[in-house]
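User: I'm writing a tutorial on reading structure tokens. Could you give me a worked example: one chain, its sequence, then its tokens, then a sentence or two explaining what the tokens reveal?
Assistant: Sure. Here is the example chain.
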Amino acid sequence: MLESKFIYFNGDFVSWNDAKIHILSHVIQYGSGVFEGIRAYETKLGTAIFRAYDHYKRLKESMKIYRMETKETVEDYISITKELLLRNELKSAYIRPVVYRGLGSISPNPLHAPVETAIAAFEMPNLFNEKASSGINACVSSYRRFAPDTTLALAKATGNYLNSELAMIEAEENGYDEAIMLDVFGYVAEGPGENIFLVKDGVIYTPPLGSSILKGITRDSIIKIAEYLKLTVKEQNLPREMLYVADEIFFCGTAAEVTPIVSVDRIPVSDGKVGKVTKLISEKFREIVIDGVDPFNWLEFVEAKAY
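And here are its predicted structure tokens:
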């Protein structure tokens, strides 16, 4: 059960149980909200928020797409988040900001419902727990990602994840750990809540933004880490069969971090073990967020660095 002491709620820090909205809020009726998933890590140099500016910048971009505005700036959100972590005495945390439409019109038109803001922070392990290191078993979902002219994948909108829910339910009911979704054209897109990478003959591949994927912050981090390690990364359309002949496959995301996939549709990925490229990238990622060795300046420290 998720729990913490305080939540930032419409301008104030309130107790966890007092952060409430009306049952007829527009977001409940129609999914009219945008959100972020952010992690804070207890590094060897102190608690740090991973790519705080980039996450809140994307939140603002999602708000812009759905015509939502708040008085808080990106810098304000970062300061609020630091204060929230301190108030909750959290050394590491999963952080969930959400900007949503509150109680207003019963119409699907969101423009007459107020814009409200909440930020929560709580302890949460990797999405796949102990399987995050040994690897998970995935399936190709029968549910496709939405077409690019239906809803907008670049916005991290709450309603978008109804699509993801169907894929996750199907995967679990069929005995898999997670789903892999194709786009409307049949190319590999992403997981329900993760971006995906494939390794073939030493080259790292990932679907392009045009495949109805979220422009993931962790995805961008993996690309930059791979380039830093002198590895070749290609963004291109990937046919489904690439999943069956890949040497390595892994998911990435704030909740999933770097999680290997060891089988797809019960077909082993290579020898069914975690591959060396996946290990190399995962180790470098952990070096940044745990050891604090950060050549990219991605860590936003909550307090002064502890040297």
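What the tokens reveal: The chain has a mean pLDDT of 96. The longest strand covers residues 93-101.
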